[in-house]
Design brief:
about 180 residues, alpha/beta, Rossmann fold, five-stranded mixed sheet, two-stranded antiparallel sheet, 6 helices, about 15% strand, elongated
């Protein structure tokens, strides 16, 4: 039996529509090797039921698809947007809201459509209502952090600009040749 949870942001008009749980992992390797993450994402469906939803749809067609590649079409994400725009969804859930998108464009599209159609967003800890300015701010920050995190990871793996390495200094070898080495 599921313990019934409560959030004052959830209204009867939200519960009259279905909950959608979006599940994604960025690569086929993660799908194969990180079963615990997958299980935790699927568990969010139970959280939606505990919050009062009777109809919960799990969208997992983007397993193994990176949300970072703006050019890559994510069928599952597009389905979430479509269902929200049709007025069928009362809440979109994801274990971490960063799982929903890693691009500014997709994040803003999702937030805009959810706000227009009165759809809540939830992660494993919180329910967000875009009619509340504080929730807009928090989701905006989380979306920005997700995008920045991805850019930092990309730059770090590529050794690109914007990533600072440890401070370095010139070191003279016994042969007299100069090279760089870490400070300290």
């Amino acid at each position: 039996m599921t313990e019934l949870l409560y959030s004052p942001k959830i209204k009867p008009e939200h519960l009259a529509r279905k909950a959608v749980v979006y599940i994604r992992q960025s690569s086929d390797k993660q799908v194969r090797q990180n079963q615990e993450s997958q299980r935790l994402q699927y568990d969010l469906a139970e959280r939606m039921r505990a919050l009062g939803w009777k109809q919960v749809e799990i969208i997992n067609s983007d397993l193994g698809s990176s949300a970072a590649m703006a050019s890559a079409r994510r069928e599952g994400f597009e389905r979430v947007l479509s269902l929200v725009a049709l007025g069928e969804v009362g809440i979109v859930g994801s274990r971490e809201v960063s799982r929903l998108s890693r691009t500014d464009k997709d994040w803003c599209r999702l937030l805009e459509v959810c706000q227009i159609f009165g759809t809540l967003i939830a992660d494993e800890q919180q329910v967000y209502d875009l009619n509340y300015l504080d929730d807009q701010l928090v989701l905006g920050i989380k979306g920005t952090l997700s995008v920045v995190e991805l850019k930092v990871l990309r730059a770090a793996t590529a050794g690109g600009p914007g990533v600072q390495s440890a401070p370095r200094r010139a070191v003279q070898e016994a042969s007299g040749r100069l090279r760089t080495g870490p400070l300290g």
